[in-house]
Each structure stands twice: as C-alpha cells, then as structure tokens.
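Re: duplicated header lines in exported structure tokens

Our pipeline writes sequence and tokens for each protein into one text file. With two proteins the header for the second block appears twice in some exports. Here is an export where it did not happen, for reference. First protein block:
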Amino acid sequence: MMNVKPALIIVAMGATLFTAGRAADGGSARVNEEVQLIQILQSDATPEEKSAACVRLHRAGTDRAVPALAALLGDPGVSHSARYALESMPSPTAGRALVDALEKSSGDERLGILGSLGVRREKESVPALARWLAAAGGPVSDQPPGAGGNLAAVGAAAAAALGEIDHADAIAALERACGASVGSLRDAVVDALLRHANRKLAAGERREARRLFQQIQERETVGHWRMAAFQGVIRASGDDGLPLLITALGGPREEERRAALRLVPDFECAGTTPAFARLLPTLPPALQVALLNGWVQRRDPPPLATVAPLLSNPAAEVRLAAVHALARVGDGSVVVPLAEIAATPGALQAAARIALAQMAHGEVGRCLLTLLDDPRKEVQIEAARALGERGDRFAVPRLLELARSDADPVRVAALRSLVVLLDETRVDVLVGLVVGAAGETRRAEAVRALTLAFERLQPKQGSAALPPLLHGLAAGASESRAALLSVCGSIVTPEIRGVLRAGLNDPSPEIRAAAVRATSQTADQELLPDLLKLASGAGEEEFRELATKACVRLAAGRGGRLPTTERIAVFRTIASGTLTLVQKRALLAGLADGRTSAELEMAEAHIADAAVRTDAAAAVLGIAPRLAAAPLAISALRRLQSIKDDAELPKKIEAALKSVESRAGFVVSWQSAAPFRVAGRATADLIDAPFPPEANWADYRAPASRARLARWEPMAVGIDPKNPMYLRGGSPGLFGVAYAYTWLHSSRSQGARLEIKHDEAVKVWLNGRLVLCGIGGGPLPQAEADHFGVTLAAGRNLLVLKVEQPGKPWTFSVRLQNPDGTPLEDVVADAESEPEQG
C-alpha cells in the first residue's frame, strides 16, 4: 500500500508524471518522465516511493529502465513492484533480466519471478525452469545452488510457468517430472500438461493433444485428473470421439460417465443427435435426466419426437426433465398435455407453466387460445395465464369476454393476463370493467387489475392511459369514483395530483375517505404538504395515522428520501402535534433511519413515554452509529442504559457503541456509479482516463445535471467491529473504474486531515481539485492509509473518489480528522443533501 509520501509526490509531480505524456512533444516528455522515474529507483527513496515509480514504469517503461528495475528484484520491499514492471515489458531484455535474477533470488521473490516468467511465456527461461522443476522432484544432491526454502513450492511454480510456455522442451520437462513427482508438485505438473494439451487441441494439433491426454489418463490415479484427461481424449479424437462418448455414457465406469456427461452440451461430431436418441431409452432414469439436461443445451437440442413420449415415462424425474426440455423444443402439439400438467398441483406444475410461457415453435399461442373454451376451468385458467406471460395480444378479445363472465376463477385469471397484455391505448377497457362492475367483488377484482396495469405502464403526463381514468373519475357514480380513486395512489402525474387534492376536499365522505387512502399510498412527493396537513390536523384519527405513515415514507423512504433539512422539517411538523400511539410509532420508525443530531433529539424526546419507549430506543440505536459526531452518539447511547425494562437492550447498546467507536470520523454517506471502461483498454490504465463524472464539477450541484454524469446509487456500508469501517460497492466481474461522491458540510472554513484507505488505484478530488492519486497495495482493512492535509470551505464541499475495480468488489474508507489527528466533530457528510443554489 502506498503511504503518504508517494501519494503526495505523485500529486506534486502531476505536471511531469501525469500530464507530460499528453503534452504536444509527447515523445520527449515520455523520455523525461522515464528518466525521472529511473532516478527515483536509483536514489535512497523509500520503498513506497520506489514502488510508486515501478507502477508507473509498468505502463511507460522501456529497455532504458530494465537495469534499474532488475537491481531491485532482490529487495524484499520493492521486488514485487519491480517484477510487475518487468513482467509487462515486451522487450527481450526484460525477460533476460528476470531469468538472470532467478538464481540470485530466494523465498517469495523467487516464486514471484517464476510466476512472471510464466506470464511472459518466456521461452529463454525453459532450461532454468526445467532445472528447478527437476530439482524439486529429485534428490537433495541435485538441487541448484541456493535452493533452500520450500523447494516443492518452487517446483510447483516452475511447473506452472512451463505450462504457459508453448515450447517442446517445456512439454518434455513436464513429462519427465510427471513420473517422479508426488503430492502438490505432481498436481502442478499434471495441470501444466493439461494446459499444453488443451492449447494443442485449440491450435488444431489433435494428434499431439490426444497423446498428452492419453498419457495423463494412463498414468494418473486421481479422479479429477483422469476425468479431465478422458474428456480431452474424446475431444481430440474427432469423429472417433463419438463412440468413446456413447460407450462412456452407457458404461459401468462412474468416472468416465461423469466426464462424458460434461461433454454432452458442447461435443461436436456428425451423427451425435441420432446416437443420443438411440442411447436415451436404454439408460436408467437418473442418467436419462442427466443426458437430457445436457442435450437440451446443445445447438442441436433433442427433437420433439424424442422428448414428447417422455411425458408419460413412469419415472417422475424423467417426466420433469422432459417438461424442462419442452420449454425449448416444444410446439403446439404438446400444449394440451402441458396445460393439464400445469393445472395439476405437484412437482411438475411450475415447470409446465414455464414451458407453456417459453415455447416458441409452432402455433403455441393459437392452441392456448382454443383451450380458453375447454370445459375444465383449471385448464382454462392455465391457458389464460400462459397467454399473458407469452404476451399474446391476439387473445385480448377472448380474455375480455372471460373477464366479463360469471366464471369466477377464470375471470380473475383473464383479468391478470389483461394486466400485462393491454397497452396504454386499451386501459379504457379495464376502467370500463370498474365502472360497469356488478357488485363489490367484481369491482374489487377490476380495481386490482387496473392498479397493476398502471403500476406496469407507469404513465407520464399526457399519457393515453389517463383520459379514460380521468373521465371515469369525473362522470362515474360515487362507488365507482371511490374505486377509481384507489387506483390513483400508484400514479404520479400532475393530472392525478389534482384529482387527489380535489378528492381530499370533496363533500362526500366516501370520496374523501378514498382520496385519503389513495394519497397515503402515493409516491408523489409533491403531495407531501397535503399529507402533512392531514397528519397534523384535527381530522379523523384513522386518516391522521394514514397520512403520518405516508409522510414518513415519503420523507425517509429508500426510493424517495428527502434532503436532510427537508426531512427534518417534516418530522418536526409531525412531532409538534398531539400524536396517537400509531403516529408516534410511525414517526420513530422514520427517525430510526436518520443520521443527524436533530433526529436523535426528536427520538430521545420519546424515551420517557412508556408506550413507545422501545420504539424510541430502537430509533436512537439506529441513528447513533450514523452520526458524524461520535461523542454525541456515545452520550445518547449511554443515556439509554438507564432503561431497565428491556433485557436485550444492554447487548444492543454495547453493539452500537462498538460500531460508533469503529466508525468515528469516517464518511459513511456516498452515492456511487460503476463501471466505467473503454473497449480494449486495460483496467489499470483507466485511472487516468477522464469519464463524465470528472468532466465538470459544477454539474454536481443540481440533480438533473448530476444525473447526466452517471447513474448514481446509494453505496452500501459494511461494518466490522474488529476493524475500521469501510464501504463496498460494485460486483465481481465488473472490470473498470467506479466513482463515488459525497457533500461535506463544514460549519466554518478550516483545515482537516483526510485519510483514505484503498486496495487499488484511486484518485480524490475536493471541490474540483485533485488532492490524491494513489496506488493501493492489499485488501482492506489491513492496508495502511494515505493521509494528507486539506482545507474545507465554510458550507458544502464536494468530495469525489475514482477507484479502480479489476473484477472484484471495490472497497475504500475515508476518515476526516483535525490536522493533529483528533476527531473532527463539526463536519457532516451527506451524499443525499443538495447544496444551496446560487
């Protein structure tokens, strides 16, 4: 991990090390950069500074840098970085330097050099590698000078390197060692030989590949090596491999059978499908299932004529495998039996439903349509379900007939399918079903379908779906208007906002009650003032409670959390009224997600109320670990210790105290975006590549412009009481770089110490100025931290991080302290708050 000095040196030398290569005289600038980096390597600089220079030479070094890098290969503090740089250089000089260093090195340095020679596929190293491999499996007298240490590990590393080098001498050395080695060394040798064999096969050298595979199969006793080798023999045998595969699948040897089954999805040979068809009926049920599951993954899956008869197989597991296979190969001819299976509760029901939804051959939809007239209601229901899941819009007229029918379970199934089949232009049909419903049961069914349809369509202002609903709300009878109002809770548009506001003031108690319930379900934050008025007013208790819950959800909900100041204002307005027990609990539940002293104060105000003391304590326990001011959080948690009527509370307090102590001073509120990458460009090179999030720092000040920079998401926080807090983001496999930002609110202009931990390369900007470009060196939380002085302006400060993410979850931690390292208590980090405009 690079400590403060190299980080600051790289930032201070930014004009030379990071922009020189982009100057107009790019060639001479790069030479100057390389010379300066070589000078660092040859100076008495610290290991961290030399490592930072090596990393830069990894990208920019030439033959000129090889002697200086080679001189560091024996230095334990810098060897890894120097080797990393040499490993990437295409120059033969770099390869010779690594070979020369092999005899002089020892321990981890030698193992690292062996690995680098393999990465480079350095053919000149084959004699040396062969010598070390032979020594590892031979008598002590044959060991090279200075062998020492764990010779088996050295031999395994040499074998791994030889496995990467496409050279006849490398193969010969591995073959000689194969018979003489044991244990982990033998595993490494066999693995290397298998890689050679697979490489030969990929290159079209089938004869040599088969020879190597057969040699391993005949010599080896370990099951997984024999399986891998047998698979290789089949793949290398061309058309002659099919008889081997079929014999193994039906043969008595479990090992060969398992190896053959793994080849079923991808094995390429003329006549494979007829051979599988002949073999399938002769196998026991378990093997029929295994063969069928592999066969259906092939580019030439099993024919329908082979699969369909298996639906009547006496073995349940075979019938299930057949149903799964029909999802890919089935057509209209199997719709009836599959619908009958789908209509029968049991192990095959879910698979049959999936098959009916996924089959793409023949007239599947038309066959399902005819089943809507089947005398069996359960079959009708399954047909209606499948038509909806398939998106077969031609079925809408018949489904509408069923939706108006008296057949209760079929009617509901038809409505559910109409939900997904009707587009915006046909929502009027569902509105008509609500308005014209005969009885409360049918009206409730239609309302549910209409609500789901609007949730799916998410109509915007001016949508074609809105006029039929608005017309029904304006012209219908009171019972249908009330029913349609309940649909409005899922819609966020100005038109519906107006309808709900009008409903809240309607003289009809029935309409007003429906409007209150709908508004209490809304995601429209523009209605928050209306809800707040309801919650704090003198109306019916039920309505005040519904409105309070809605206010809390809109203010503190994960999907629609308000900026901190607005959220606190909402909570204070609610708290200022005379609250019912339900309102108090709703308020405390919202406060529990808070992270400010104001929210903590409101939660603590309810500790004395015995009716909600447990809820208030839970809110304090939720808020305290998120506070930036650790002393304030600790004091609040200590005050909770006076509560004696909860046996579990002391344990919860102790856990929260540990969390606060481990997170004191850490920035825990971030918005992140990932991954950013460039096609054909290595992840390690992207830390210097500019992406939209660093294009214009002023864009962070407004939500709309910030959204154009990237798709931002809240970043998860992980806490380990044994180690400092750190944040996680991204997912394995997402190569590239990631960005994260937060706002630091400082009560005054002041100096601060910023501490960063990171396991890969990182850049940090404060208020648009680059303050760190560092290189990680190990997993958190063990790594050392970069720490340096910064100046925070009074008010909002924008902190942005860019982190390299090479295919694994990316982690970092950021802590703010006073310049002397003591806790900084008057700075609050909140990524979700908005800066003042102007």
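Second protein block, exported in the same file:
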Amino acid sequence: MPPPRPLTAVAERSRALPRWLLTLATAVLAIGLRALLQPVLGDKLPFLLAYPAIVLASSLWGIGPGLFVAFATALVAGMPWIPPTVDAAERPMHVGAFCLVAIFISLFANLRARGGPAPGADATDTGFVTPLETWLRAVLWGAVLVPSTAFVAASWWGYEHAVAEAQAASGRAATLVRGQAQHTFEIAEQIAHRADQAARGEDAVLRAVEAEIHARLADMVAGLPAIVNLNVWDASGRAIARSDRYPADRAAAVDDRAYFQQQRKTPVPLGISEVLTGRQTGLRLLNATIRRQAVEGQFAGIVAVSLSPEFFSDYYRSLAVENPTLTRFALVRTDGTILADWPRTGVEGGPPRTPMNDEVYALVKSGDLEGHIETTSRRDGQRRFVSFQRVGSYPLYVVAGVSRDAMLAGWWRFVGLLAALLTPVTAGLSYVSLVALRKTRREQSITAALNDAVRRRAAAEKGMLESQKLETLAQLTGGVAHDFNNLLAIVSSSLHVHRHLHPELGEERHVQAMTRAVQSGTRLTRQLLSFSRRQALRPEVIALQSWLPGTEGLLRSTLGSRIAMEITVEPDVCPISVDVAELELALINLALNAKHAMPAGGRLRIGARNEGASEDGTSMVAIGVADTGVGIAADVLPRVFEPFFTTRMNEVGSGLGLSQVHGFCAQAGGRARISSEPGVGTTVEMLLPAEHPQAHAPLALVAADPGRMEGQVLLVEDNDDVAQSTAAILQAAGLVVTHQWSADAALAALQGGATLPDIVLSDIEMPGKLSGMDLAFRLRESWPRLPVVLITGYAKQLEDAVSGGLRVLPKPTPPQDLLRELRRAMGDAAHSPGDAEAAAAQPPR
C-alpha cells in the first residue's frame, strides 16, 4: 500500500485535543486504580501504576503527555486526602525518575517514527509509522507493562496474604489443640471425682471390696484412648485399687512422687505432673490428680488419672499431616515443663522437662492468656509464627507454630505460577491479531464441541459396559447365594435333628459355634441377594417408638465420633410392616451417605412421624434422615435414586446406597423422596404404609418346639442333601415323609392314585416343566383342601406366591418356623369349610 501522506497543520491541531484528553484519562485512571489498591498495599509501592502510565503516554503521544502524567501523579501523591501519601523528601527522587523514563520512551518512539533504527532492531528497518502500527506498538507496551504491574501488585498482595494466613493458621491450630487438651483434662477431672466417690470409706473396707472398685474403675476408663489407667492411692502412697489390674500391687508406692507430695502438702483442684515412666506399667505418662479427704478433712490419699503423652503427640502429628506448614506443637505447664510436643524433643529416656522459648515463656509468666508472636526457635533456628493459649483454668498452655520457610515456599509457588501464567499472556497479546484470535476462538469452539461429543460417547459406552458387568455380577451373586442357602439349610436341619436326638448336647460349645456360623452365613447370603435384588423379604410388624432408638448403637459405629446423632419418634406414630433387615440396611446406607457429606463433622437427625394419607388413601409413616452436609446440586438431585449413580467419582462408592433405599420403599408399598440445599444439608424420607395398631394385637407366644405331630407329608425337593435333612426334621417331629424329586413327578404320582398326603412341602425352583408354584396351583384345582407350603430364596418368587394366595416361607427357614407353619397349615385345612366327601375324593384319572 502507498505510504501515508504527511499530516497538515490543521489535521495536527484537530488530533491534539483527543490526545490530551486521553492523556488526562490515563493519569486519572492510574491515580484512581492506585487509590483502590490502598487497602491491600497501604503506602507501600505508591507509584506502582504511575510508571506504566508514563511509559504508555510517552510512547503513544510524545514527551509532553508523558511529563504531564509524571507531574500529575507526583502532585497527587503529596495531597494528604488522596491515598497514598508520599513523604516530601521522596517526591523529588521519583519526579526525576519519571522525567528520565518519559524522555527515553519519547526518544525511542520518535526514532521509530522517523525511520531510524530502534535499539536492538535491524538498521535497514525503516518506513513510516501508520496508525495501525502505532496502536500495535501501544498493545505491545501494554502487553509488557500491564502484566508486569499486575505481577508486582499480586506478588505483594500474595506475600501479605501468606503472612496473614500463617498467623491465622497458627491461631486456628492453637485453638484446636487447646480444645483437645481442655476436653481431655476435663474428662480426666470428672473421672477422678467419680473414682473418689466410688472409693469413699475406710481403707481396710475398700481393700475388702477391691474387686468391685476395680471393675468400676475399669468401666470408667473404657473406650477412652487418652487414659492409660486410673488409680486410687491411700495416705501412705499405697495402692487401694487400679483400673488396669487386680489385685493391685501393695508393695508399690508413690509417696516419693512430686504429684503425691503436692496434693499432701499444698493441694490443688487438679494437679498435673510432669511426664514420667510408670513404675508398674513401664509407660510414659502424666498424672492428673485430686486429693482424697477423710471425713474429718485429713489427707486420705489421691486419685490419679494417668494420661498418655502420645495421645496428644499423635493428634499434633495428624494436624501437621493435614497442614504441612504447621511445624511445632507443644502442651506446656505454666512452669515451663513440656508435657507433650511434636516433633518430639530430646531423646528417648531423656529428661521430660524442657524449657519453653524465652520469648513465649516471658509472655506466659506475665499472665497473658493467649498471644501471637513471630520468633526464632533457639532449638533448631527456624523462624516461626507462634500462637499460645491458656487451657481453661488448668496450669497449662498450648503452643502451635507455623514455619516461615513453609509460608514463603507457598508464596514462591504462587509467584512462580503467576509468572508462568502472565508470561504466555504477554507473548500472546504482543503477537496475536484480532483476526487470528477470532479464527482461533472459532477453531477452538469446533474442537471443544468435537471433544465433548467424543467424551460423552466414551462415557456412555463406559457406563453401558459397567452396567452390563454389574448385572452379570448380580446374576452370578444371586445364583451363588441361592446354592449357599441350600448348604445352610442342610447344616441347620442337621443341627436341629442333632438337638432333637441328643438334647443333652444342645448347649455344647461346638454345637453353639455351628449355630452361630449358620446365622452368620444366613446374614451373608441376605447381603448377596440384596445386592442382586433377589432377597426374599421377611416382613414383620414393628413399633418405631421402641425399635428406632434401638438402632442408635448400630448407626453410631457407622458414623464415627465426629458426627452428632439425634433420634426422635413422635409418640403417636403407627406401627409398620417391613423387613427389619432391609430397613436396617437402608438406614446404614443413609448414614454412610451423610458421613461422606460431612467430612468435617456435623449433625444427623433421624425422626419418625405420621405422614397422613397417600393418593390412594393409605396411611403413611415417614422416617426422615437429615444431615448438615454439603448438599446436592439441583441438576444432580433427580438422578440420585438411579442404580450405580454416584457423585463420589474419585472415591469408593458403588452408587447402590440410595438405590437400595428406593427399592426397599417400593417393595414395602411406599416410596422415597429427597430434598437438598447445597451448603445446608440433605433430607431423605422413607414413606412406608402404616399398620393400624388394633389390627395387630399382641399374639400369644408360640413355643419354640411345636411338639409331636401326626400326618403324612409329601416332600418335593430336587437337592438330595436338602431333602434328607428336611425329611429328618419332619420325621423327628412325628410326620411320615414321602419324597419326590420334581413337581412333575409329584403331580404324576398323585394323579396316578397315590395316597393323598395331609400336606405338601415343596421348593419352588426345580428342574422340569413345572415349578413348585405350578404344582401348588394344580393341586389347588384338583384338591382344594390339600394344604401346600412352598419354600424359596428369591424375592420375585416369594412375591408371586404370596399374591397368588399360597403359603410361602423364605429360604433358609429355621426348623422351628418350618414345623410351626406346617402345623398351622394343617390346622387351617382341618377347620376350613367343606364337605367330607370332597376331602376323601379320589385323584382324577
């Protein structure tokens, strides 16, 4: 293109006004932005934005605008009402630097405009400067100056923020360890007073009942990891009772210990000893002691709660693992004795007393309850931010320190990351044009759409493969569990027959062990069948007023100690008819989900109330489980009941928990609903059909052994071992057993003129054309009064049999339940209406 024509004087004057307006806007912008950064920078770096503004004005509009911006920013810096305020002695130095920068940049720009070589450029590079080139040069300067200014400001802010965060981290850590220490010593003090109450009386009397006192002391410290043991000593320092052993060693004495002499001479509400080695346990411990007094007020000995220093050190180490900047913890007495610390000081077996850092100890001695200082450790030479706090009213302090080197390491990482981000941005702004940018954005949009389509397709294929794999696993699991149930039935039946034939061996240890093994195996198969959705339900009517609070121990072990739990049941809640094991599993699944939603702890509320009537008029009972966790996003909430759907993609999670809850409610004739708010918590409610209390009056207890029975039983079972064990049970009860291997053979035998039995007991799943359910329907058509009892291990078969009006038992069934059901079925058939001729009718030919 032809070179631009020289500008006339009129044109030059017409462009002068916008140039000076832009110069004024640049100065105002630099001053305003610096004033906005005042809360972060204070009076430090007062001309952070002045230098970039001067460079920009000088390069675009010449030396005049550059000097204008320089003097304007210097003038405003001297005004006390516009931040920042610069000392008068420093302003001339900055003004001189401003002038030098403006002159240099202007000369550089003029040299380029007149066609002269720029510093570092090729000497043959000459030509006129077009407006586009001018603005590209401005973009180049802006690409260098703006990121550099942002880098300096952000680095300074990051440093101040890192220092403040280090100070806050040490304060938070001190608060945490103070809370742990205060809670531990409060518990120790409470236990000491309880032990004192338990050991009131004359020493001779107490030693006579030492076993009882020992048991009470052991119960007091059970489940408390911080407590090594609990001891009661008499006035001479001899043991009266201990929590960790019985009988106590009478020869051992602690009258020479400092903590014993302190309570004898100058008693304190709670004495805390230095770390020492127990003479009987050989463990490192510290004692929290209280004084025992006789009725007349004389010294009667002490109660000592021995605490483990490692309990505190382990807690400190766990905090340091979570936050590596925390490099020092200590639990210290007011006299400077360190009771527990991390990292450990000294060597094993060395003196337990170590003086505190002089600067911290000076503040402690002055009576400060808490404080924060930056100090250099005389032990390892590290510079730390240290916070200390008094532990309640006890003569203890906790100290937490954050390493300055660790803080600076984090800041250097921030600065490096910032530099890594700004460098490519600067290069991109210097060389990329608007057309190339638009083209790149368009190409990136197309590429992103293509990648998204490929990713969604891959995710769909992966989900399908996962679903097929789990479905195959579920079928395999269901088959294995069904066969395992047959083995359990054989063992259970054989145990029943063994007890019947040899009642004197019923309480033998090996028999009891086999019984427990059968029960454990039964629970295992229920879990396997529950996973494959083939579990046969065992509904029973329960009253939530008594049943739901009884699950607290089970759920507490699931939740852990960091989550508080509350169970409330309204007094008028109606009973429900459900499978108790499935309801327990649903509550456990909901508790596990709540635990994952509250990693830092929280509260779980479980409640039951009457919900009212559903759309079909059925009265419902609502069991709600509410947590205070992170909540679930609104776009994810509709999918939470889907099988295998989970929000914990990088954690252990099968996605079957809420699916089991939904399936359990549906099988029970109810439904599940969920509500959640991110950051507030989630509530899951199980709506289950209510049972009218008057419809379920208490039944008379049925004896575990139904007694002798009379009659003939047709047993239809394809498994030889199961058939033999079941037949042994029936014969032991007095019944005559006829066995057939399949439903086809049983029906053929009856239709062929075989003697009609008093009752038919058949499995459902058998080889042949007919199943046990088909056999029951055929027998109902031909012999309506012939009772039939079916056994199955599959939920679908159980539901179909119940819906068809058949008697069905879940597998495995305890022998007592089997005999009881046979007696009930035979009794119902004997009292059912009908004429005698129908009962004696011959089988059809």
